[in-house]
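Review this fold:
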Amino acid sequence: MERISFIFTICFMLLGPIKIIQPFARLTQGKERSFKRSVAIKSALIAAIVCVFVVIAGDNLVSKYELSFAALQISGGLVLLLAAMLTIFPRAEPEADTAEDRSTLQVALGFATPVIVPPAGVAAILIFVGFAAKYPGMYQAL
């Protein structure tokens, strides 16, 4: 139970719903309710598929290339460090585009990967996959 709460806390911080509210509102501003709902559902499904793919592919790649757990920790830690540095020192980004002439699937694809499942979230999932060999029940928690 302790591992499940730890994984939930880390995933909530990196993949959680709070950080996506503002970008979603900005992206779908002025759109009708059915468009917003469709984008939200499709984005959530795409993000879930990406997370499952990272777990399955990550496990296969770690075992296929015989990556050590220390290498996985170092590379994941570097990605998390870069994500933290970008949070502290944000880059000047161009004006955010809106979903003007794009379909709901195009908007969902553009929203799911960098916003809902950021690189730091992928790194955290891969680190948890590395822990799964030592701790039974880690896959179920993920």
User: Anything to note?
Assistant: Helices lie at 2-15, 21-27, 33-64, 69-88, 104-116, 119-131, 138-141. The longest helix spans residues 33-64. Residues 3 and 135 are 9 Å apart (CA to CA). The mean pLDDT is 84.
